[in-house]
Structure formats: C-alpha cells, structure tokens
Specification:
Layout lengths: L2 E4 L4 H4 L2 H7 L4 E4 L5 H12 L3 E6 L2 E5 L10 H6 L7 H8 L1 E5 L14 H9 L3 E5 L2 E5 L7 E3 L5 H11 L5 E5 L5 H12 L3 E3 L5 E5 L7 E4 L4 H14 L4 E4 L7 H10 L2 E4 L4 E4 L9 E2 L11 H9 L3 E6 L10 H6 L3 E6 L2 E6 L7 E3 L3 H13 L5 E3 L2 H4 L5 H6 L15
Parallel strand pairs: 1-13, 2-12, 8-9, 16-17, 20-21
Antiparallel strand pairs: 2-4, 3-4, 5-7, 6-7, 9-11, 10-11, 13-15, 14-15, 17-19, 18-19
Helix pairs in contact: 2-5, 5-7, 7-8, 9-11, 9-13, 11-13
The structure holds uridine-diphosphate-2(N-acetylglucosaminyl) butyric acid.
Length: 415
C-alpha cells in the first residue's frame, strides 16, 4: 500500500454537537462532519425530537432550533448508538422531563454499558430518576448547580454533565473528569454560544449556569483515532510509504512513544504523519489508559500489529470488559494469541495470518479485522460492517485508493 489518506472529522467530537443543539436557541452549523452511520443516527434523533436538520453539502449540516415538547427519545435510535445518552441531559434541562430506554452501541462493558454515573449526576443536580423495566424516566423542575465527583473517569459522562450544567441554576464543579481533546472542543463551542465553562481538558471543570445559549458554527476536529488507526495499519502492512494527512499528531503522543519502542519508521509533521517501511517491528506490552494515555480505541489495531512483531507482548485493556474478545478471530486467522483473562492477551509474533469469514463485533474490532485481512494471505470476508461504518467513512474506497484490495459487497447489520 502506498499514497496519502486524509483523516475525516472526529466521530466522538461530532456526535456531541447534536445534543447541544437541543439547548441552543439559534442556528448551529456543523462543518467537517464525517459521513458515518452514527452521525446519521444523531441527525435522525434531532429530527425525531422536532428540530430541522438541513444537509447543506457533504460534511456540512445546519440545525435549526424549534421549540418543542417531545420528551421521548426514540427507542429504535437509542438502541443503535451509545452516544444517544448525550441527549438525555439537554432534554431534561430544557423540557424538565425525559423518557428513554437503555442505550445501545458497541457491546463493550459487562452486559450493556452502564449509565449509572450519568444518572447519579442528574440526581445530584436535583432530578428525580425512575428506573423502569429496561428504561428510565427523569424529571426536574429546574436543575441546580452542585459538586459532582466521578468515581471512574468517563468521557461522555463528563461531556453530558458539563453541557447540562450550562443551563442549570448556579455553579457546578465536576471532579475527576476525562481530559480528551474532544471535551475541550465541546467546552470551547459551548462558551462561544454563551456558556461559562472553565477547566475543560483538566480533571476539574467549573460551569456557571446561564439562562440561554445561542447559535454558532462548529468545525469538527480531525479524528485522532482514525489517524492512529491508519498509522497502525500502515505499520502492520509494512509495505510502502503512507502519508496520513489532515490530522493532529500531537494528540497521539502515547502512540508515538510505543512506535519508538517497537521500531516503526515514522515522521511527524504538524498536520500529517508519514509511515515508512520499517526494518523490523519488535513486540512491546501496551496498557490502555484514559487520555493522554494509550487510547482503548487504538487497542485493537495495536493488537493486530503485535501479531506481526518479533517477540512476545502483553496487551492489557483496562477500560472495557469485552474489547479483547475479538482476538479469538485473530487466532482463527492464525495469530499466536492467548487470552490470559478478559482484560489481557499474550501475543507471540510474527505469525502468518490467513483469510477467513468473520463478523465485526464492534467498530474498533471491525477495523482491526480489516487490517488483519489486509496482511493475511487469501481472501477474508467480514460481515456486520454496519459496525465499521458507524465510525469510518467510506473505508473501502479510501483504502482501495491506497492499493488495498477491498470491496463492499453489501450493507451488513446484525443485532
Ligand atoms: N462507565 C460506567 N458507568 C457510566 C459510564 C461509564 O461504569 O455511567 C464505565 C464504562 O463501562 C467503561 C468506563 O466507564 O468501562 C469508561 O467509559 P466512558 O464513559 O469513558 O466511555 P464512553 O464515554 O461511553 C467514549 C467514547 C468511546 C471511547 C471511550 C473511552 C463516545 C461517543 N464514545 O465512550 O468510543 O472508547 O469514551 O475513551 O465518545 C468508539 O469510538 O469506538 C468508542 C467506544
């Protein structure tokens, strides 16, 4: 594979602007929006809640605020993507009531992914929370500022309570917050439309509630996970020179420190990454960690890379309970990989991989299987590609342009 691949807008930054639109009494224009399934679901969610969403051109959308009374989050959409939980706080803040089923998305935690920290936060802000059979009803006359400590670092929990507190009465202090760059971007945007938020990007965020938020323009930052995934893909294929453009390499320092240890030949520009052929890739242990540590969303492509590295490595997934289960499929492809426990796998490389028929269990495991398929001998067929298209725009076309032999056969969706 050879050539240049451009990074698209960040899924996990883009998705958070749609719930903000529920609270903003003005037009919001979003640009550099990735054309991915989760974004389409977020647009559908806003429409279902009565907003006007207008596609102005590819990657650009305008959201027109409409006053509304809808308090039910549509079950079919909520079940399809986890970020739907982000709509709960804004509806509660503006309508005083919200009813929703347990959110879906990648099945990564024990059973369904918990939302206890969201619910506890809303309760502390004065909401009544009724837990019904697999659904929730939240009510609040007026949300009030309070002190909230997150017992575990949570990205969407931090974002959700930060945006909801923007319209609460008084000051909210959030402690032990996630520090992802997407959270800084969200706070900057909220401030640009009238919110008063300080400290985003640190462990303590202070929000002073305001009466109303206006409209504005949000440019989605480049997707650091996509950039990192392509860098790992290029290192794993180790065939030609691949340039990854339109990205922010400074957001991936934990990956570069691993690359230095394992011997990947790479060069960083301000907004680009170049991966050159490496003499040899060496095995190295990796442990996922909240930002700025090694991202859980890059664990699966790193695990594929380790199947091609010289020596033994231990990959330790600390954020999610089920994110290593896909390694079973790498073993089917020929990788020497042993699961020590659900959070740890031991990999002995390099191993020759062979094409197989597989199904994508979730977004990040799905892209890892694509990478494994690219380096495997023979043909691999991957099903359930809806999961991959939730987060990677037209991946088949973009990888084909680099020389990959990849074809989309049909739209796959399995529950
Ligand atoms: N957790 C709870 N209770 C909660 C919330 C989270 O126990 O109320 C647990 C989770 O089960 C997990 C841990 O806390 O074990 C951390 O989860 P977090 O809340 O940080 O994850 P998230 O906010 O749901 C976001 C991204 C994920 C990314 C993680 C970690 C979005 C929409 N999703 O998820 O992205 O892996 O942060 O960085 O921003 C992906 O893009 O593939 C993806 C899964």
């Amino acid at each position: 594979m050879n050539g240049t691949i451009e990074v698209k807008g960040a899924k996990n930054a883009a998705l958070k602007i749609f719930p903000v639109a529920l609270m903003a009494q003005g037009k919001i224009k979003v640009i550099n929006l990735p054309e991915i399934e989760d974004v389409y679901r977020a647009e559908e969610m806003l429409e279902a809640l009565g907003h006007e969403v207008k596609r102005t051109k590819e990657g650009e959308t305008e959201i027109q605020y409409k006053s509304r009374k809808c308090i039910n989050l549509p079950a079919d959409l909520v079940k399809k993507f986890r970020a739907s939980v982000m709509f709960v706080g804004p509806l509660l803040a503006t309508c005083g009531e919200v009813y929703f089923p347990h959110p879906g998305g990648c099945v990564l935690g024990a059973g369904t992914r918990p939302i206890d920290m969201f619910l506890d936060g809303f309760k502390k802000m004065g909401a009544e929370v009724e837990v019904l059979e697999n659904s929730y009803r939240l009510t609040a006359k007026k949300l009030k500022g309070t002190n909230i400590f997150f017992p575990r670092i949570t990205v969407t929990g931090t974002e959700s309570l930060m945006m909801t507190a923007a319209l609460a009465e008084g000051r909210t202090i959030l402690k032990n917050c996630a520090m992802e760059p997407e959270i800084i971007a969200l706070a900057d945007f909220l401030n640009s439309i009238g919110a008063k938020i300080q400290g985003a990007g640190t462990a303590t965020i202070i929000i002073d509630g305001v009466e109303k938020l206006g409209g504005g323009e949000y440019k989605v930052m480049p997707d650091r996970i996509e950039a990192g995934t392509f860098a790992l893909m290029a290192a794993a294929s180790n065939s030609g020179e691949i340039t990854i453009s339109n990205c922010l390499p400074e957001q991936l320092e934990s990956l570069w420190s691993l690359f230095d240890k394992i011997g990947v030949n790479y060069k960083l520009g301000e907004t680009s990454i170049q991966i050159l052929p490496s003499k040899k890739i060496f095995a190295c242990d990796a442990t996922t960690h909240e930002y700025p540590g090694f991202a859980t969303d890059l664990q699966s492509p790193y695990t594929v890379l380790m199947t091609q590295a010289e020596g033994i490595s231990l990959v330790h997934e600390t954020i999610y309970d089920r994110r290593l289960l896909f390694t079973d499929m790498l073993a089917q492809m020929g990788a020497n990989i042993i699961m020590a426990d659900p959070h740890r796998v031991v990999i002995k490389g390099p191993a020759k991989l062979y094409g197989r028929t597989l199904a994508s269990p979730d977004l990040r495991a799905g892209i890892a299987l694509v990478i494994a398929a690219l380096i495997a001998e023979g043909k691999t067929e991957i099903g359930n590609i809806y999961q991959i298209e939730r987060g990677y725009e037209r991946i088949n076309e973009r990888l084909s342009a680099l020389g990959a032999d990849i074809k989309k056969v049909n739209d796959g969706y399995e529950d």
